[in-house]
């Protein structure tokens, strides 16, 4: 690893049990660190990370996500290449001989001249909280076993550690990001993925074989801990010129989420509780104006959140609302205008986004006073406002965003062009820390 992973967000602001309490920065640090901005290539199709598991019709691309609003369910997904095989997942608690089974469904889709394998999704319900389970997919002599650990029941002082990755892709840098996440001693227990998964759409005709390679690449982590999915622009796969006019087709066939449990009508926006966090996932690329399904769902969602039970309110979306990089500048502006008043009124703690291939953290600011005629259009410090964190630096083939708007706006606390992941580590109801990439320093999430 060495130095190339080390970056320098040296803001400490620690609350509660943690000892250090120095705020060095007061707005506007631009790190001079740039992690190798040479374009990284996608790993070749015959790379070790894309290896097809042995055996006839062996399940591949195994991944799990949270399968129940309360956290006591898991959706297991996998693909069999040759024939449908079985939709059943066998599962058993670590200390139990009793094998249970959950049935699921199998779907397939076509995209231009590509035909998918058999994509299985099985939802396991009513699991015990805070328990290790083993599970098995496949039939005959090509079964495969994995495991996961359910979260503790939701509650105010339940510590939990989330990882964050966005814009991952499948380059050598992507592999570095995933490896580095796996090796982080902070040990993320669940990954919050802020959109842009495979970048298959960068290939001619959106070569969906690159969705399959990506599925095999992430299996080594995503089969053992839930990845919480957010859709990005690279999931839209809208290309009417080649006859593909159903947005999000590959994504919604491959990645199931428990959206109905939060009364959502679309897998592109939903929410879950996990430990002491309430996580709301939004879709930057679905209609979100007033009266739209996403809007109507969202405004009912916020009052539902019981901050005594889940004190940490977190929102995931792909396109950032505050972004001072040149790349994708102001793309999140219409969504900011629509939703920022809600985020401030309901005191959302953190909004994580990706899209910009770099890291940026905002101060706690809001910009909600403007009414067209009053000229009040500059962000101001606001303790009810969220911190905005952009972590779209997973390592995809499009490369880093290095160009920043100058001067650095005062709402921008820290920005740095580096690949990597984040760790969002909840200690208790008052204290939580965020760590960028592998640096050993942490910042406080609430102040
Ligand atoms: C089991 O796998 C082996 C090796 O791939 C194969 O030769 C054999 O036919 C398989 N048996 C069954 C029952 O599928
Ligand atoms: C799909 O079309 C592309 C471009 O014509 C071609 O290179 C590829 O081999 C085709 N794939 C299949 C499965 O027919
Ligand atoms: C990806 O990373 C893993 C773990 O560090 C390593 O074993 C593997 O060889 C890497 N693959 C490629 C293609 O870089
Ligand atoms: C909120 O959660 C707390 C702690 O779990 C619980 O005691 C309380 O009844 C809940 N409030 C509502 C309105 O459901
Ligand atoms: Fe993006």
From TrEMBL:
Cofactor(s) demanded: Cu(2+); Mn(2+); Fe cation; Zn(2+)
Reaction equations catalysed: a phosphate monoester + H2O = an alcohol + phosphate
InterPro entries reported in the protein's UniProt record: Calcineurin-like_PHP (IPR004843), Metallo-depent_PP-like (IPR029052), MPP_PAP (IPR041792), PAPs-like (IPR039331), PAPs_C (IPR025733), PAPs_N (IPR015914), Purple_acid_Pase-like_N (IPR008963)
Domain Purple acid phosphatase C-terminal: 385-435
Enzyme class: hydrolase
Record's keyword terms, sorted: Glycoprotein, Hydrolase, Iron, Metal-binding, Signal, Zinc
E.C. no: 3.1.3.2
Span of domain Purple acid phosphatase N-terminal: 59-150
Domain of life according to the entry: Eukaryota
Domain Calcineurin-like phosphoesterase: 161-359
MF term (GO), any: acid phosphatase activity
Family of this protein: Belongs to the metallophosphoesterase superfamily. Purple acid phosphatase family.
Protein name per UniProt: Purple acid phosphatase
């Amino acid at each position: 690893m060495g130095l190339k992973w080390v970056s320098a967000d040296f803001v400490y602001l620690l609350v509660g049990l943690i000892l250090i309490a120095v705020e060095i920065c007061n707005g506007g640090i631009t790190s001079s660190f740039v992690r190798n901005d040479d374009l990284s290539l996608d790993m070749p199709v015959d790379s070790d990370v894309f290896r097809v598991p042995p055996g006839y019709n062996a399940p591949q691309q195994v991944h799990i996500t949270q399968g129940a609003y309360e956290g006591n369910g898991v959706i297991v997904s996998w693909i069999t290449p040759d024939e449908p095989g079985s939709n059943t997942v066998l599962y058993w608690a670590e200390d139990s001989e009793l094998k249970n089974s959950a049935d699921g469904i199998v779907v397939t889709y076509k995209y231009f001249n590509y035909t998918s394998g058999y994509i299985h999704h099985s939802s396991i319900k009513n699991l015990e909280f805070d328990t290790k389970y083993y599970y098995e997919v496949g039939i005959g002599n090509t079964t495969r076993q994995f495991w996961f650990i359910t979260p503790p029941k939701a509650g105010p002082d339940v510590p939990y550690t989330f990882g964050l990755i966005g814009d991952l892709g499948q380059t050598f840098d992507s592999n570095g990001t995933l490896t580095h996440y796996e090796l982080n001693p902070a040990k993320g227990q669940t990954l919050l993925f802020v959109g842009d998964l495979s970048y298959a759409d960068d290939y001619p005709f959106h070569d969906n074989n690159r969705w399959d390679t990506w599925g095999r690449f992430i299996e080594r982590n995503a089969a053992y801990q839930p990845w919480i999915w957010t859709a990005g622009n690279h999931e839209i796969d809208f290309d009417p010129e080649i006859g593909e006019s159903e947005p999000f087709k590959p994504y919604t066939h491959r990645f199931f989420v428990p959206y109905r449990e939060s009364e959502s009508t679309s897998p592109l926006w939903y929410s879950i509780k996990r430990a002491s966090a309430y996580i709301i996932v939004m879709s930057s690329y679905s209609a979100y104006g007033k009266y739209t399904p996403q809007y109507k769902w969202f405004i009912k969602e916020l009052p539902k959140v019981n901050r005594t039970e889940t004190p940490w309110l977190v929102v995931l979306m792909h396109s950032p609302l505050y972004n001072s990089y040149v790349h994708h500048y102001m793309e999140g502006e219409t969504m900011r205008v629509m939703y920022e008043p809600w985020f401030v009124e309901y005191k959302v703690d953190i909004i994580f986004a990706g899209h910009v291939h770099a890291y940026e953290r905002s101060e706690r600011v809001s910009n909600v006073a403007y009414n067209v005629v009053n000229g009040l259009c500059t962000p101001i410090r606001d303790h009810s406002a969220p911190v905005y964190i952009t972590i779209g630096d997973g390592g995809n083939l499009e490369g880093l965003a290095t160009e920043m708007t100058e001067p650095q706006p005062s709402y921008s606390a820290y920005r740095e062009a580096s690949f990597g992941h984040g760790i969002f580590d909840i200690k208790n109801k008052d204290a939580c820390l965020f760590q960028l990439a592998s640096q050993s320093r942490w910042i406080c999430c609430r102040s």
